[in-house]
Amino acid sequence: MSPIRRKATSLVFAEKSTSTDAGLTAKQELLDSVKSDLKITCHPHTFHVHRSIVCPRSEYFASALSGEFKEAVSGEIELDDDPRLVNGMLEYLYTLDYCVEDKQISNADSAATATSGEVENGLSSPLSSGSYDHLSFHILMYSLAERLFIHGLKRLSKQNVERELSQRVDGDTFFAAILEIYKTTPEHDRGLRDLIVNMTIKHLALLRKGENRLTLSLESDIFTQAPKYSHELLIALMDKWTRHLSD
């Protein structure tokens, strides 16, 4: 039996204009794996990157690659996250932005059917099978940024979550977003949790009415499925009502 070979992956950045020469240089460096001095592995993909780029913008990478930690010595860090998320996270570290392309949220059949030569040369898609909704992708990106201490990416992904929610506040995805936010973010991190609670209050009438008055975007089941959300929503509503009575 031949040995399993790990994919040497280049990031699949979306083609978009970059406003600064520094951004262009960083992007060019990323695509040049010969000059890389760090490998970030998330099975079965390996991303070749540069410490000088990722460390200043991520406290996690800066800490892991300092001193005598094994990662600093080996020059390799392993992450258990989906390669699509890691790809977006690294794109942000190099360009201060990230994109969710259609190929990032659709089934990556090309990866499953790639030849051994394509895999070895990093020519196949680094994306896993499965699919992400855009809103779900941004929520998971926020969670990854929180764990890797990438503060700028947290702010950006939160803005993206808010934009997506604002556009789909009366859709089925609002219910799913509540569950995903409370599943993937720690209790001490208030960014997305406060956002979803505040948006619920702001759009409560619409959420409880639904698009056609027969369906509810905020179904009653949510209060048993997400008790922490229900608790925080109740407190926020009481605080708002108390302020209203005091005015």
UniProtKB/TrEMBL annotation:
<feature type="domain" description="BTB">
    <location>
        <begin position="36"/>
        <end position="102"/>
    </location>
</feature>
<dbReference type="Pfam" id="PF00651">
    <property type="entry name" value="BTB"/>
</dbReference>
<protein>
    <recommendedName>
        <fullName>BTB domain-containing protein</fullName>
    </recommendedName>
</protein>
<dbReference type="InterPro" id="IPR011333">
    <property type="entry name" value="SKP1/BTB/POZ_sf"/>
</dbReference>
<dbReference type="InterPro" id="IPR000210">
    <property type="entry name" value="BTB/POZ_dom"/>
</dbReference>
